[in-house]
Description:
The structure holds two protein chains of two kinds. Chain A is α+β, with helices and mostly antiparallel strands. Chain A has four helices and seven strands. Chain A has a two-stranded antiparallel ribbon. Chain A has a two-stranded antiparallel sheet with strand order 3-4. Chain A has a two-stranded antiparallel sheet with strand order 5-6. Chain B is an alpha+beta fold. Chain B contains five helices and eight strands, in the order ββββββααββααα. Chain B is elongated, with a radius of gyration of 27 Å. At the A-B interface, β2, β7 and α2 of A face β4, β5, β6, β7 and α3 of B.
Amino acid sequence: MISKRPLCPECRTPIRETEINQLRLTRCSGCDHYLQAELFPAFFRTVGTAQGAEDILLEGESTCFNHPAKKAIVPCFGCGRFLCSLCDCELSGKHFCPACLETGRTKKKIKNIERERTRYDNIALSLVFFPILLFYLTFITAPIAMVVAVRNWNSPPSLIDRSRARFVIAIIFAALQIVGWCVLIIALIGMFYAR
Amino acid sequence: MPDKGYKRLTWRRRRATKIALNVPRSTLLLGEDHILKVESSIFSESYRRFFFRDIESISIRTNRRRDYWNMFLVLFLILLVLEALLDTETTTPWLVLVVTTASVTAALLLINNLFGATCDVRIQTAVQTDTLVPLSRVKRAERALERIRPLIIQAQGQFTPEETVLRLREFLSPAPPAAKPDPPAGLSAHL
């Protein structure tokens, strides 16, 4: 549980009330560092009791898909099923059932609850460039890099950098390495038969 | 270029420590209704969202990181200068290297002081407190806060400093003790 008294983050000295929301740095009496603290109305918000789902009173009223005895209050944005207040999961103004929320998270269809992404472009780029240090490894890693880049071309990119430039570079260099190995193998076979 | 729906809050990606290279780099993006903190390593990135309606407090606290870097750079510069001045048997290429390194060190020292004081910025919600690592300088933190503050006010409303003081006093004052209920009449007769 987060402490509800505003404290200096380092020395835990309570911040004086007159120094809050001043929009300027003031000296902390505990650690002598300068501190600027801003509190917003959410700090004073108290958490209310969760509202229980209502029982159905009239025959013919819509019921929750998961709780047939409870009144439905909203349809799920993902699948359209009716939800009671217990099943309703609100996210950015939309209402989802728990199953759609979990599917949205695992299949990355709902961006706002996505917690991580794999950087396949960096993986492909690393497979192309790092093995160059041990030249022979590129015989194995170049095709793998090509497969990784092509297979994950449409995967969600990084939220910071949307471009596919790394994929393009990985594909080009992987192709060059594969072509290089093919030329080398053909040359070796040619030399073998020439003897 | 960041994803559609996001704007960069900071242009810098920063590691929490410059020494360990496996520590993820941190970037801040501004969404429609939240701040997105992205921690990216080579093969993955993880996200943490702070919705404007849930932000309870933001604090900026100065630290001594700039002073430590100043001490290190000054000592290194002194060593290089002494080496350039006192080493009489030095060759020209070595002297060039020493002077170049000293120049770079002096430039870093100047930049470190021009950028201003270093700080830690902490953001608090009801369930977590986190450090916004990219906001490592006071000037940068204040510029970022100037962009975030109106969005938080739009989502939550605003108290004046006087209202905040009053609310804080009410919030922190202990609740009056609940009155003990009178025992039932029959019970006291038994006692």
